[in-house]
Design goal:
The structure is a single chain. By secondary structure, the chain is α+β, with helices and mostly antiparallel strands. It has a single domain (4-83), classed as ORF SCO4226, nickel-binding ferredoxin-like monomer (Alpha-Beta Plaits). Helix content is 31%, strand content 30%. The chain contains two helices and four strands; from the N terminus they run βαββαβ. The protein has a four-stranded antiparallel beta sheet with strand order 2-3-1-4. Strand 2 (41-48) and strand 3 (52-59) form a beta hairpin. The longest helix has 18 residues, at 20-37. 14% of the residues are buried.
Length: 94
C-alpha cells in the first residue's frame, strides 16, 4: 500500500523562538519515534511559525500520525490528508 501525504498542524506555544538546539532535540525525538514506526510513516519537512509547526508526513494512514504524536509528545492538533497538489506549472503551456 502506498503512503499517503498529510499536513499536521501542531500547536506548540513559542516554538518560533526556540533556539537551534531545542529544534535539534525535537527533531531527534521525532526521528527516534519514526524509526520505531517505520516503514509506515516518514517525515518530509516542517515549517515553524510563531506558535505552531506545519509538518509534512507520508503515512500508511492517519492512525500512524496519531501514534507518532502520542509517542513523541508533540501534539497533532489538526491532521489533513493531501488529495492533490498544484503549483505554478499546473497551468501548462499557454
Amino acid at each position: 500500500m502506498a503512503l499517503r501525504k498529510f499536513i499536521i498542524e501542531r500547536d506548540i506555544p513559542g516554538v518560533g523562538t526556540f533556539e537551534r538546539e531545542q529544534l535539534r532535540s525535537a527533531a531527534a525525538k521525532s526521528n527516534e519515534v519514526l524509526r520505531e514506526l517505520a516503514p509506515d510513516i516518514q517525515w518530509l519537512e516542517s515549517y515553524v511559525a510563531a506558535n505552531k509547526t506545519f509538518c509534512v508526513y507520508l503515512a500508511k494512514d492517519e492512525s500512524f500520525i496519531r501514534k507518532h504524536a502520542e509517542m513523541s509528545g508533540f501534539p497533532a492538533t489538526k491532521i489533513t490528508e493531501v488529495r492533490k497538489m498544484i503549483d505554478p506549472t499546473t497551468e501548462g503551456p499557454g
